[in-house]
Amino acid sequence: MEHMYLDYNATTPAAPEVVEEMAPYQRDRFGNPSSGHWYGRQTKAAVARGRDQVASLLGCSPAEIVFTGGGSEANNHAVKGPAWADRGRGDHIITSSVEHPAIVNPCRWLEGQGFRVTWLPVDGYGMVDPGGVEDAITDKTILVTIMHANNEVGTIQPVAAIGEIARERGVPFHTDAAQSVGKIPVRVDELKVDLLTVAAHKLYGPKGVGALYVREGTVLESLIHGAGHENGRRAGTENVAGIAGLGRACELAAVSPEERMRDLARLRDEFQQMLEDQVGEVLLNGHPEERLPNTLNVSFPGINAAGLLDRIPEICASTGSACHHGSQTLSPVLEAMGIGAERGFGAVRFSIGRWTSREELERAAQLIGERLR
Amino acid sequence: MEHMYLDYNATTPAAPEVVEEMAPYQRDRFGNPSSGHWYGRQTKAAVARGRDQVASLLGCSPAEIVFTGGGSEANNHAVKGPAWADRGRGDHIITSSVEHPAIVNPCRWLEGQGFRVTWLPVDGYGMVDPGGVEDAITDKTILVTIMHANNEVGTIQPVAAIGEIARERGVPFHTDAAQSVGKIPVRVDELKVDLLTVAAHKLYGPKGVGALYVREGTVLESLIHGAGHENGRRAGTENVAGIAGLGRACELAAVSPEERMRDLARLRDEFQQMLEDQVGEVLLNGHPEERLPNTLNVSFPGINAAGLLDRIPEICASTGSACHHGSQTLSPVLEAMGIGAERGFGAVRFSIGRWTSREELERAAQLIGERLR
Known about the structure:
The structure is a homodimer of 373-residue chains.
Chain A: E1 4-5, H1 16-22, H2 38-58, E2 65-68, H3 71-85, E3 92-96, H4 101-112, E4 116-120, H5 130-136, E5 141-145, H6 159-169, E6 173-176, H7 188-191, E7 195-199, E8 210-214, H8 229-232, H9 240-253, H10 257-279, E9 283-285, E10 295-299, H11 305-311, E11 315-316, E12 318-319, E13 321-324, E14 327-330, H12 332-336, H13 341-345, E15 347-351, H14 358-372
Parallel strand pairs in A: 1-11, 3-4, 3-5, 5-6, 6-7
Antiparallel strand pairs in A: 2-8, 7-8, 9-10, 10-15, 12-15, 13-14
């Protein structure tokens, strides 16, 4: 059976260039970057190069990059770090109702520790209103954290506008850019962010490594204390191969991004047309324009999407619901967008990427058509 | 120049078998283990197999293994997790004065958060007295954390005796086994521990992955909150390749461990003799018998070890001091053992492993002899 991978927002295959870059650090160049001797110097240089590559993509200084064990760790660090460091100054955090669980759950945990969290609503496209951030900021606000692009529907938030407001009010601003880095331009100064999360495995890098951008002067406590790695901000022997891979992935992401965006968006929109040719109208979830170029979240009216995908195992995609103990629950993102259960349970997220072909999408649309006609 | 790697306690090269095990998950089998489709099922199975392999080495249930981004993360989780979960019950932690920074600094940070920490002394061999643990436990004690084997001098702590005491008093007991797993038998029931740290890159596995053993029923808060990975105990897309590699490394570590221990200890002791044949008496730091079989920490009287190694770049080993802004500071471990500056600054840690040859050690001893004679 030929499987069609249409789930690039869940994870991406590592690029061949990335795998090649990592190879020497998996066996021959194995030294601990903290070691002062020959073996250590080799890998210290590799970590420095990876840091330069990530910084170059984001438009920041290498010293502002902290390597982590992944996007979830970076998000936890970005939320808890300012909270612990700044508790004397305030106890209020502003976030949105469509964030990834790695933002939602650190915020909930901090609520249990006595912090107050404002959960901003979104409109029907999943978009946060910057005015809502402005209204929510108080003199006790120590962090605003709003994602760059939503993982489920692809909606791109007005991050620069929010950053402008946060900066005027002197509040640190974090964005979870796990889904946007490598898909659309992500430059920390244009976005006006102080903290930004990167997850390597979402941009053709390896799993188990990520980065947190920390603007110079941003005060945050460590999440993982220990030896002095990462300028004392994140302890633990560096994942040298992973960092080399993330660095290379960032370098690749910088190559003709506009062209790749345009091609992906065209392919995605063609796919939507193929689906409509097969089954009639589908309902688009997420913003029609302000959206990741690779993401198509559509509801098939009157259809249970989980059941549909179960019956077409060739199509590897995600649904807008989770199954727990045999009962379906609607995704909190679709719920926050005001999408009801019927439409929500009919939602499929197709997310395409570097190796998605037109033929694959035609075949996928055809299989869905055969099932639904 | 031929470099002799005598720094296996800093990090180990990944075993060829480990690299081979990881390869398919770096490119072809790339699915997110959380995905319900074909790609996800492949990697979900790989994570489950890795979990079985780690559990088998430690003698625990697979459900008691939490994969982490490394040993430092596991240590932070083991220290802060019980502290946060049990704050209502108590605020007292017992540890030793020879722990790794990834234990020391989380404990210090908790002191800043209002916890009290007892820093137990060690004897001249770097050994903790179990009686000291017994005396220090109060009804406010929520955690005892004592390392299994010391990274610098190799001294093996009386963990089972301490575990017996902690268990009688109903206090959770953690051991940082980053340096012992793969070098000596580590079985959670024999050691009577509730929490235990594993770092893959210390046992011929990859960097950037580790594990925390959590005995069933042990109460601890998460360090990284988010989605429900690792049974809700550690959020983040699994480092599938890393987990597969750690699993394979654990499987390899289970093959004739007694024979490997005996061979390594013999080679190490021969090396000590070679050194003494070259330069006269050297002073052994650490316990003569209760010691990792691969570790030889010796002081060359009247010699500055950092300067010595600088002049013999072929020898890749560690010293008992760190250099900060041009001034040398003695390692806190040697200091806690009552080893003064002169002897401490003369200390070199040689740590050998799977690919260390007798010829290599002979050459190293000869080079040191030539420098010191």
